[in-house]
Amino acid sequence: MPNDLPIYPLVLTLEDWFIFSPRVREMLKEHVCQLLDEAGIDKNVLVDMPYTIASANEFEITSQVIAQIGIFTFMSKKTTPEQQGLSLLPFATNDFKEEMRNINGRLFADDFAKMMPDITRDYF
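Below the sequence we write its predicted structure tokens.
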């Protein structure tokens, strides 16, 4: 049900994507537009609701920033045309320095250690 709240699409990947090159970003946009056309979805959805690509690692860290300041404050700034080209973590590090000081870099370390005690013994 529409509720007039903003929508911030997020493509979450297991690995880091390095989409810094304007050409790579353009190729991705062309492919997304083709998929939207095939699905019968207006391409203006990309203007109204620009998507963000993030790795699970970036999201784990930046979700802690979002918890501090709210999703609107974070994503409304991230989805501006000037910031769309930045990866999630560099954006957060640059624009939310104070909040980044409060994050836990090993958020689920205890849980991971319980699941993989042989692997994590020397890591954590």
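The helical segments are 22-39, 45-48, 56-69, 71-78, 88-95, 97-100, 109-115, 117-120.
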